[in-house]
Structure formats: structure tokens, C-alpha cells
Design brief:
Elements (H helix, E strand, L loop, with lengths): L1 H112 L3
């Protein structure tokens, strides 16, 4: 009977050893799966962050371009307004000079016709 008991004890020990190894392998596989899932989640998050950053930079570039366009248009409008003001000033100066010449001519004409 001792042989039988020894055989049973050995079978039980072998089974227990097999189960412990299976449990250890399963735990190891679970830990690896968890680590892989965490890495995949981190990669996905980093990818999303990169896409958001890319979109932000693109938006900033578009805003900068639009701002520069508005500045150029504003400068053009200012130059145009200044040129128009200069033309109007020259017209006014010319008109004032013409009026002054006419007034001077009338004064001279009056002086010539006035007896002393």
C-alpha cells in the first residue's frame, strides 16, 4: 500500500505542480496583456495629442496668414486714403491760389482805375 500511497502522493504533487505552473503562466499572460493594452492606450493617446497639436499649429498658421492679409489690406487702404487726402489738399491749394490770383488782379485793376 505504501507504493500506492506514494504513487498517489506523487500524482497529487505533479498535478499540483502542473496547476501552479498553469496559474503562473496565466498570471504572466494576463500581466503581459495588461501591459500591452496600456502601451496601446498610451500610443493611441500620444497619437491623438499629436493630431491635436498638428491641428493647433495649422489653425495658428491660418490665423497668422489671415492676420497678415488684413494688415496688408489695412496698410493699402491707409496709403490710398493718404494719397486721396494729398490729391484733395493739392486741389484745395490750387483753388486757393487761383482765388488769391484773381483777388490780386482785381485789387491791381481797382488801383489802376482809382484816381489819386
Amino acid at each position: 500500500m505504501m507504493k500506492r500511497e506514494k504513487a498517489w502522493l506523487k500524482a497529487i504533487a505533479d498535478t499540483e505542480k502542473t496547476w501552479l505552473k498553469a496559474i503562473a503562466d496565466a498570471e504572466k499572460a494576463c500581466l503581459k496583456a495588461i501591459a500591452d493594452a496600456e502601451k496601446a492606450a498610451e500610443r493611441a493617446w500620444l497619437k491623438e495629442v499629436a493630431e491635436v497639436e498638428k491641428a493647433r499649429k495649422k489653425t495658428e498658421a491660418e490665423l497668422e496668414k489671415a492676420y497678415k492679409k488684413v494688415v496688408v489690406e489695412l496698410e493699402h487702404a491707409q496709403r490710398k486714403a493718404l494719397a486721396e487726402e494729398e490729391r484733395e489738399r493739392k486741389k484745395a491749394d490750387k483753388a486757393a491760389l487761383t482765388i488769391a490770383k484773381k483777388c490780386k488782379q482785381k485789387e491791381t485793376h481797382l488801383d489802376e482805375n482809382t484816381p489819386l
